[in-house]
Amino acid sequence: MKHRLHRLIAVALVAGLAVAGCGSKSSSAGDSEGDWTPKKDIDWIVPYSPGGGFDVYSRGVAEAMQKTQLPDGVSVVIRNMPPLPQGITQEYTAKPDGTTIGILPMPAAIAQQIQDPDLAKWDTEKFTVLGSVDENAYVVYVAADSPYHSIEDLINKKGLRSLTVEEGSSSALAGLATIKALGLDATVTYGAEGSADVVTGLLRGDADFIVYGSTDLTGFVESGDIRPLLFLGTEDQRPQTLPWLKDVPSAESKGFEDLSGAVTELRLIVAPPELPDNVATYLRDATYKAMTSPEFAEWAKTAKRPIIPRDWKAATEVMKKQVAQMKELVPTLSN
């Protein structure tokens, strides 16, 4: 296992060096010359239903972008387009003219591309990356009144049940990877409509544990409804703004080094492939400036949402590393 991890890291580092103008069209094209500013509203596609983490972050960035970066009269319109394959396909196949952008869930996008290439009508590495807003490491949670008080309690129990959103999502992938890495005797039910629905099922007794993002369920932890048992990210992915997460043991500290950070959810902001360079430049600048604006920092504070803004180059590098990781990890989950 450690040898495979070393190969994975080596491949990821090489992939990370391959960052070029990811997804955008060469400036030699005639329609790529000169400055560009939007004259029409921009559709922002979210491949999930309203209310979940990707939707919330999308609305926060879109609001900051509209207030601080876009010309007067130009709005950013959120378009929720579940299920996941349909939403990602819409992001990928939209006309590359600057009027459609969206939030891309990783590692879900590349995982579905690997698992079901007939369904996944996209090539993850060909998206035009505009930036990323957050890196959401996963956590194993149980209900507050659960008899399980440590990850060892779960490991030693037979016939466990878990619950998540649609099959192929980042959360579903994280759950499968966790079950495999920890050797849990567990079955998974798919089809919850979002984070609130997942927690409701957990509290109702439909599941013994769930695997969900550290930034998605803060309100439920702080209200005392659920308890975290295990942090699945690396230490630099542990949000300092979440005091309840400070003392939660990590996968690495429990001896599961290969799980640490392997399925961290990336919230990428993308446009379709072949976006003209001048359009890509404008949208990349607008996205990063919006995410680093005082207005967005205030939004994050009010919404209690940690943020890790990255410009398009840094976001592309992180994406390529995770693509390399998933090409090694995903095939093992079906074994």
The appropriate CATH architecture of the largest domain is: 3-Layer(aba) Sandwich
Q: What low-confidence regions span 5 or more consecutive residues with pLDDT below 50? A: 1-20
Mean pLDDT: 88
Total of helices: 11
Biggest β-sheet strands, sense, barrel: 5 strands, mixed
Spatial arrangement of strands, main beta sheet: 3-2-4-11-5
Order of helices and strands: HEEHEHEHEEHEHEHEHEEEHHH
Helix coverage percent of residues? 25-40%
SS elements, strand count: 12
End-to-end Cα distance: 15 Å
Q: Which fold does the CATH topology of the largest domain refer to?
A: D-Maltodextrin-Binding Protein, domain 2
Query: Which band does the percent of strand residues land in?
Result: 15-25%
Counted up, domains total: 2
Organism: Mycolicibacterium agri (Mycobacterium agri)
Keywords: Signal
Protein name: ABC transporter substrate-binding protein
Family: Belongs to the UPF0065 (bug) family.
Q: Summed up, what is this model?
A:
The chain has 11 helices and 12 strands. The protein is an alpha/beta fold and 335 residues long.
Descriptive tags:
about 325 residues, alpha/beta, D-Maltodextrin-Binding Protein, domain 2, five-stranded mixed sheet, three-stranded antiparallel sheet, 12 strands, disordered N terminus, Bug_dom1, BUG
Describe the structure.
The chain has 335 residues and is of the alpha/beta class. The protein has 2 domains: 2-135 and 266-333, Bordetella uptake gene, domain 1 (D-Maltodextrin-Binding Protein, domain 2, 3-Layer(aba) Sandwich); 138-259, 3-Layer(aba) Sandwich (D-Maltodextrin-Binding Protein, domain 2). Helix content is 39%, strand content 18%. It is built from 11 helices and 12 strands. The chain has helices at residues 2-16, 53-68, 84-93, 108-115, 151-155, 170-182, 195-204, 218-222, 277-291, 294-303, 312-333, and strands at residues 24-25, 42-46, 76-80, 100-106, 128-136, 138-143, 160-163, 186-189, 210-213, 226-231, 265-271, 275-276. α1 runs antiparallel to α11, α2 packs across α9 (277-291) and α4 (108-115) packs across α11. It is globular and about 65 Å long. It starts with a helix and ends with a helix. This is ABC transporter substrate-binding protein. Belongs to the UPF0065 (bug) family.
